[in-house]
Amino acid sequence: ISPSLNKYIEKEKPDLVFLTDVQGAESYELIKISEKKNIKLLASIYGWDRPTLKGYIPKLNNLNYIVNSQQMKREVIRFHNIAPKNVRNFGNYYLEFLRNIKIKKKSKYFTIFYALSTNRININELQTIEKIISFFSKKIKNVKFIIRTHPHDNFYKKKIRSLFKSSNIEITYSSFKDIKVLIKSLKNSNLVL
Fold first, then answer.
1. In this structure, how many other beta carbons lie within 10 angstroms of the beta carbon of residue 62?
2. pTM to 2 decimals?
3. Which DSSP string corresponds to 132-168?
4. On the CB side of 13, how many CA atoms lie within 13 Å of its CA?
5. How confident is the model over 152-163, as pLDDT tens digits?
6. What is the H or E stretch that residue 43 is in?
7. SS3 label, residue 191
């Protein structure tokens, strides 16, 4: 256990520790410290693939979970043997900020936003984009596409630049620090896929 983290928890004496990534390595230290000091834990499981693809979810008496769908709640209970009383469905709480975004009314383009997954999850992503571009280009005049890469994926990042060289296709390379760019792209889109 990190001495500085342990010292910080001792100094602050929290009633509850909120884990934003219960399956991340950095959370395990907080779990160990909280267990030792009998501090309650609340963990957010925020991605649809977290309960089934991302590994172990700790089962502890002092740990409760919030999830964003009934399906995810069922999977956490089923695959990780977590007691139903320890799992609450809060809906899409991490996207709540999008509710207050004012949508751009008039634009010379009909803009379609497409967020790529990773090569590990979908090996046909580029073919999917090609089909979407082909379909909507035939159906809608002045269509524009914003294609956003996944922050953990370099495979598509390298390939996509050479494949899509059209003036109506904008490619954004995401990181976890570009939330303002993401919000602007979503705000200016007519359709999000």
1. 16
2. 0.51
3. HHHHHHHHSTTEEEEEE--TT-SHHHHHHHHH---TT
4. 1
5. 777 777 777 666
6. strand 40-45
7. strand
